[in-house]
Amino acid sequence: MEFYTNALTSVLAWGPLGAMIGATLLGVLIGALPGLNPVMAIALLLPLTYSMDPLIALGMVAGIYNGSMYGGAIPAILLRIPGTPASIATTFDGFPMADRGEASKALKIACWSSAIGGIASAIALMTMGPLLARLTLFFGPAEYFWIAIFGMASVGVMVGSDPVKGIMAAVLGLLIGTMGIDNLSGQARFTFGQTWLLGGLDLVVVLVGLYALPPVLQLAEKRDLVGLSSGQLKLKSAPFEKGEIRGLIPTWLRSSGIGILVGILPGAGGNIAAFLSYNAARNASDDPASFGKGNPQGVAAAECGNNADNAASMIPALSLGIPGNVVAALVLSALTIHGLQPGPQLFHQNPILVGGFMMEMLITSVLIFALGGMVATRVFAQFQRLPGVLLVPSILILMCVGVYVINGRMVDLWVMLAAGLAGYFLEKVNVPLAPVILGMILGPMAEQSVRRALLISRGDATELLTRPLSAALAVMTLLVILWPIAKSLQRRRKAKPV
Q1: Closest CA to 344 of 317, 320, 373
Q2: What is residue 20's predicted lDDT score, i.e. its pLDDT?
Q3: Which run of H or E residues covers position 497?
Q4: What integer is the mean pLDDT of 100-108?
Q5: Of 442, 450, 413, 432, whose CA–CA distance to 176 is shortest?
Q6: pLDDT for 165-182, tens place per residue?
Q7: Which helix (H) or strand (E) element contains residue 186?
Q8: Any bridge partners for residue 189, and if so which?
Q9: Beta bridge partners of residue 181, listed in sequence order
Q10: Which of 149, 82, 142, 139 is nearest to 110 (CA)?
Q11: Domain for residue 313, yes or no?
Q12: Which pLDDT band, with edges at 50, 70 and 90, does 114 fall under?
């Protein structure tokens, strides 16, 4: 207890506290602007931290990280444009809620869910970090392969009305993810002689095009010259039904657990946690058909799940030196900049710094309640009152600026345009877009893991199923694929005339 008491005293000094408040507000703003993301913001911040106190620098990282993960829900709910990759699942029910005049309620649920998920994740980091970090030692390449396949299968099957189209979309994303240099053999694949393709297609560029451009084109189609009135937006009057908040508690508990477990696994990420939490909430619901049509449970599950991944991803990073995601890798870089060596000895050599960073992840999650909710409802929600014709060029400018500053290449703008047009036509034929992105994220992970597993076993494919954990994951994947098929056959049997 003395460990955290001393760390808390250091964190609540004016410097770290001010850094956390300012960075949390900045993070919400970054997440709310399409095309910007926490990875970009933290990467730009790192060179500026050389002369800073380590606790101030890490407090800014924690604030930007937690704030932007919530901020991504704002455009996801108001405009159906995910501000971050992890907020894709928030669009499924958040935007339909806003569309029927419940934007304020959706933003409040997203704010509370983000804070609860972040707090639960920080508590897990503080109390169960060393114990949970040891669990990752039991996961080998075979387990990571099945985790990736399970993620793609579950999203491909659960999202959208047609499981076949969902699986096809996941395969498309998997194919896109193979472009570039093969990490194991060093061979270039599907680059067509273009040097800019050697690193593959940038995920953020494709994400912005695939998810931001189709809604912009649809806004242009509507030719909205008026926009929503304050009465239509109903930001000040969004009462909750009796027992509605209490009904969200099981979703928060379930999603927090899923997000924490996903965060501990290196390479997974908040997007996977959000999708798995959303699917779990849908499967546990008495009315699964309402998901995707404005069910508050869907918003709560997605936001709580993706924020519960935040601090949990730091568990293997701080204790083992293995980053759980890109942001965790940037945190390790920040520690290295200040002459610290991540790993088991970090807890013994720098207890105040490690404990302080854990407390900063907790405090910035708590700040989301006050700062995030205020910004969301009083400032960013007002974007919906602008006429659609004004939103179109504004969003396009933000998209182009955000995409260009990632790599400083004009070709990324063309990739964004191609991805956006593809997403626009895919939506016209009812092909879900989420599996495409997840295929891009998990495809390389699945490929590298299965090849490593086969190298270790000298080509014996049965090794993928002989370990208990990999066999259990394989069974879960099979059940996810077979479940909708069985449900479809059951519905056909009931519909068949006697």
Answers
A1: 320
A2: 93
A3: none
A4: 83
A5: 442
A6: 888 888 888 888 888 888
A7: none
A8: 180
A9: 188
A10: 82
A11: yes
A12: very high
- Is the separation of the CB atoms in 180 and 189 below 8 Å? yes
Name the packing angle between helices 388-407 and 203-222 (round to 10°).
Answer: 170
Residue 222 lies in a domain: no
Q: Are the C-beta atoms of 264 and 132 separated by less than 8 Å?
A: yes
> Quick one: 440 exposed, middle or buried, by C-beta within 10 A (0-12, 13-18, 19+)?
buried
What three-state secondary structure class fits 204?
helix
What torsion do the CA atoms of 398, 399, 402, 407 make, to the nearest 10 degrees? Answer: -150
Interatomic CA distance for residues 469 and 453, integer angstroms = 14
- The residue to which tokens 């940037």 are assigned: 330
Note whether residue 284 is domain-resident: yes
Give the list of residues 6+ apart from residue 48 with CB closer than 8 angstroms, or none. none
* Whether the Cβ atoms of residue 142 and residue 449 lie closer than 8 Å to each other: yes
Highest average pLDDT, of 77-86, 367-376, 377-386, comes from: 77-86
Question: Is the alpha carbon torsion for 319, 321, 324, 326 positive or negative?
Answer: positive
Pairwise pLDDT comparison (345 vs 212), residue with the higher score: 212
Amino acid at 268: A
107 within some domain: yes
Range of the domain at 41: 1-139+231-237+246-385
In contact, 173 and 439? CB cutoff 8 Å: yes
Read off the pLDDT band of 301 (50, 70, 90).
Answer: very high
Q: Please tell me the distance from the alpha carbon of residue 283 to that of residue 286, in angstroms, as a whole number.
A: 8
The predicted structure's pLDDT at residue 36: 64
Largest CA distance in the chain: 79
Residue 267: what residue type? Answer: G
The model's pLDDT over 140-160, given as tens digits with 9 standing for 90+, comes to 788 878 877 877 777 677 665
pTM score > 0.85 for this model? no
The number of folded domains in the chain is 1
User: What pLDDT is stored for residue 232 in this prediction?
Assistant: 46
**Through-space distance between the first and last CA atoms of the chain, rounded to whole angstroms:** 69
Helix (H) or strand (E) holding 422: helix 411-428
The angle subtended at Cα 36 by Cα 323 and Cα 52, nearest 5°, is 60
Of 299, 262, 243, residue with least CA distance to 116: 299
Q: What angle do CA 81, 85, 91 make, to 5 degrees?
A: 40
Q: Which residues pair with 188 in a beta bridge?
A: 181
Q: Kindly give the residue spans of alpha helices, DSSP state H, lying in 54-160.
A: 54-71, 73-78, 88-99, 103-127, 129-135, 141-158
Residue 5: alpha-carbon gap to chain centroid: 32
pLDDT of residue 426 exceeding 80, the answer is yes
